[in-house]
Amino acid sequence: MERETKLLFGGMIIAALGFFIPLYFGKIWLGLFIALATGVIFLGRLLSLSEEKFESKTAFRIVYGVVVVIVLFNAIAFARDYGMKDFQKDVLLEIRKTIETGITQVDVREKFMYVLGTYHQQNKDSIVDTFKELFQQHLGKDGVYVSDYDLSKAGKDSLVINPSSDDNVNHFYEIEEDEDEIRVFVVSEVALGEDLEYKNYDGQTGQFEMIFTLNKEGVNYEVLN
Amino acid sequence: MKFSIRRINEYLIVLLLLIVVPAGLYFIRGDMNFLSGNLQYLFNIRPSTIILRFNTLDAIAIFGGNSPSGYSITWETVSMYLNVVLYLMLGPYLLFQGYKKAAKNENRVKPWYWYIGGAICIGMLFIVPAEITRMYMFENTIEATDKSRTKDLMRIELAEVGFATAEYEILEDGVNESFKIQDLNLNDLKFKYSVKSGQSDTLIILSVSNPDFPDFEVKMEVRPYNKRLLTQRN
Question: What ipTM was predicted for this assembly?
Answer without folding.
Answer: 0.76
